[in-house]
Design a protein that fits this description.
The structure holds three protein chains of three kinds. By secondary structure, chain A is mainly β. Helices cover about 5% and strands about 60% of the residues of chain A. Chain A has a single domain, classed as Porin (Beta Barrel). In chain A, strands 2-3-4-5-6-7-8-11-12-15-16-17-18-19-20-21 form a 16-stranded antiparallel β-barrel. A three-stranded antiparallel sheet of chain A has the order 1-9-10, with no helix packed on it. In chain A, strands 13-14 form a two-stranded antiparallel ribbon. Helix content of chain B is about 40%, strand content about 0%. The longest helix of chain B has 18 residues. In chain C, strands 1-8-7-4-5-6-2-3 form an eight-stranded mixed sheet, with helices on one face. In chain C, α3 links the parallel β5 and β6. The radius of gyration of chain C is 19 Å and the shape is globular. Chain C starts with a helix and ends with a helix. Chains in contact: A-B, B-C.
Chain lengths: ~400, ~70, ~170
């Protein structure tokens, strides 16, 4: 089966370097384990680069947070990423492409006694996806400021388009016959508790519900042709709802010398049958003007009910997916970071500045997703010695992630 | 009579209970907790980017304190 | 149930409820204490008897405490001639950090600073928030206890101190 039109796939197929960096505004909010104090004023400028599995994504991100008076803090972020994709999914179905995504967000925190009220908005734009998200939250300190309880709500409305490349002119534009929507809502609650003068723990629970067009307009599932020696491709079929529950626990402990260790575990389950476990360990060690950090993260996932690398036949079931994000796999990520803090006498308004470097190495091994370039080929070129479909080696990927950012505190 | 006695005891416990959850970590003992290295997220701009990297390639989402949300990871 | 039993029960409840109310008062004679100050000098609360004393519990790791310090120095300079003294009690287990921070101030503090390294005095004064400010009158009684510091609180201090200086 051949695609008549040269379709641009892959952005969704690989990673979907996402529709909204929602966390940006939220992280500061939910993790200020102290609701009774406004978050500190700061400005950060980040350059990031992700390189792995044939995909390179890099770009800048700028964040500014400023308090107005004693009760209000405003935060704004502008983020751009440029994707240059030749991922495994793109290799087996289309040609490499580049795309750019821009995201802007704005949030306001209002402090009233021991309570913090937050309201924010995020807008994400790329050539085939528009996402608008609104979030709100309340955070409250109690029991002598030992406990902080927070509630958050998020609501997103997204529009999905599909890009087509005109085979004659090479121009890429939205398919005029394709326009879908997707809504998402989430509720979360978290409790942060100081246990001893050296230990703080946080428990968090979040429910997310998605509704609408939840699959990629570009990706296909594989199936065996009746003779079982070759394969075909047809567009994926997904349910139009997805509901998930995630519960996490994290703890941070101040060691007998000036350093801290932290740990995190998250359990995830959803109506698509995915089961995920995340565990993380971190260590922070300041030394003079430097702060060093080491982190290790382990993630393991069980596939969605309707995921298969290759289906026994076409239209095998109501729902069929071959998105490796829904596969069974495990991933290990190890990271190192260094921060150098400084003060400039000539600028007394700068309370502190820092230069930061962070490097993460991620390795992923899939248990039920195979490298189809061994049977289909690469970018339309069949392999010299093709393997039978379903017998390709299991796919593995490695990625290098680099971040360099400057922070200024006022 | 027993019920009334229990009610009064309950009220008494409530009267002590509500105001006597004294913070067991006194404010003058909060030195380590106030140390900047004890923050869960030292740089939200960086943590959010990483959360985003993970969320956009994993099936799991949520309960990270940040969380990408709304990812059109079709 | 008889009226007597009811009153007995109420009294019992009141006894249990008492601690709930006791914790919120901060009046009566200021507990006596002696701590070492900067340069190792001993500081005893009794040496300030007859003056209005403002005891400020602070720490270098507490941002509002650091912001408040220069304002306390202004108050000290203004009212010292009228029989007022400021006494800053640092609550950190190691005086080194406090000494270092005080040494680096662009506007040095000239009032006495004491080091409550084992938190004994903080416990005696039931310090519940950082910073906490206690104002003691000329007779040695606690009159006011301030919890925390917000911009503008120093004006409230000025009014209260002026009233007590007139006594």
């Amino acid at each position: 089966m051949t695609n008549k039109l040269h379709v641009r796939k892959g952005r969704f197929a690989i990673t979907c370097f996402g529709r909204s960096l929602l966390g940006l505004a939220l992280t500061g909010f939910l993790f200020s384990a102290n609701a009774g104090v406004l978050p500190e004023d700061r400005a950060d400028a980040l350059y990031f680069r992700y390189d792995g599995g044939g995909v390179v994504i890099d770009g800048p991100s700028v964040l500014v947070r400023k308090s107005i008076g004693e009760h209000v803090s405003v935060s704004a972020n502008h983020y751009i990423d440029m994707v240059s994709s030749a991922s495994i999914d793109v290799e087996t179905s289309a040609s490499p492409y580049v795309d750019e995504r821009t995201q802007s967000s704005l949030s306001v925190d209002f402090l009233h006694g021991k309570s913090m009220y937050t309201l924010g908005y995020v807008n994400s734009d790329e050539s085939d996806y528009l996402a608008k998200t609104m979030f709100a939250g309340i955070s409250h300190d109690m029991f002598g400021d030992l406990t902080t309880i927070s509630f958050g709500y998020k609501r997103g409305e997204n529009e999905v388009f599909r890009n087509l490349k005109d085979p004659n002119t090479g121009v890429v534009a939205n398919d005029p016959n394709f326009a879908e929507t997707m809504e998402t809502q989430s509720f979360n609650v978290s409790i942060s508790q100081i246990i001893t003068k050296n230990l703080v723990v946080t428990g968090q629970y979040e429910v997310i519900t998605d509704e609408g067009f939840l699959r990629s307009p570009y990706r296909s599932y594989r199936f065996f042709t009746p003779d079982l020696t070759s394969q075909g491709l047809l567009p994926e079929q997904y349910p139009n709802t997805r509901s998930s529950n995630a519960g996490s626990f994290r703890a941070k402990y101040f060691l007998p010398y000036r350093a801290a260790i932290d740990t995190m575990y998250r359990f995830y389950t959803d109506t698509w049958g995915i089961l995920g476990h995340t565990a993380e360990l971190g260590y922070v060690h300041p030394l003079g003007k430097w702060i060093f950090e080491a982190r290790a993260r382990y993630y393991t996932q069980e596939a969605a009910d309707f995921y298969q690398d290759i289906f026994p036949r076409a239209n095998y079931a109501n729902f069929m997916a071959r998105d490796k994000e829904l596969a069974t796999y495990s991933a290990v990520t190890a990271g190192l970071g260094a921060t150098y803090e400084f003060k400039i006498e000539r600028f007394p308004w700068l309370a502190k500045g820092s230069l930061n470097l962070r490097y993460d190495f991620m390795t992923v091994a899939y248990d039920d997703f195979r490298d189809a370039t061994f049977s289909i080929g690469s970018f339309g070129t069949p392999p010299a010695n093709p393997l039978p479909p379903g017998q390709e080696p299991l796919y593995e990927l490695e990625a290098n992630i680099i971040q360099f950012y400057i922070s200024a505190f006022f | 009579m027993r019920i009334r006695g229990l009610m009064i005891l309950g009220l008494a416990v409530l009267a002590t209970g509500c105001s006597s959850i004294e913070p067991w970590v006194k404010p003058y003992d909060r030195e380590n907790l106030a140390d900047p290295i004890m923050v869960f997220t030292r740089a939200p701009i960086s943590q959010d980017f990483l959360d985003h990297v993970f969320e956009s390639r994993e099936g799991s989402r949520g309960a990270t304190g940040g969380g990408g949300g709304g990812c059109g990871c079709n | 149930m008889s009226a007597r039993k009811f009153i007995k029960g109420l009294a019992l409840a009141a006894v249990f409820a008492l601690p709930a109310f006791a914790a919120s008062t901060s009046s009566g004679p200021a507990p006596a204490f002696q701590l070492s100050g900067r340069g190792g000098k001993a500081i005893n609360l009794s040496q300030f008897k007859g003056q209005v004393v403002m005891i400020n519990f602070w720490a270098t790791w507490c941002k509002p405490c650091r912001e408040e310090m220069p304002l306390l120095e202004d108050i000290y300079k203004k009212y010292k001639p009228m029989g007022f003294t400021m006494l800053a009690v640092n609550v950190e287990p190691d005086p080194k950090d406090a000494e270092a921070w005080l040494g680096k101030l662009s506007k040095p503090v000239t009032f006495p600073v004491a080091f409550d390294t084992d938190s004994k005095v903080s416990k005696m004064y039931k310090v519940a928030v950082m910073p906490s400010t206690v104002i003691v009158d000329r007779k040695g009684n606690i009159r006011i206890m301030h919890k925390g510091y917000k911009a503008g609180d120093e004006n409230v201090y000025l009014t209260q101190i002026r009233t007590m200086l007139k006594e």
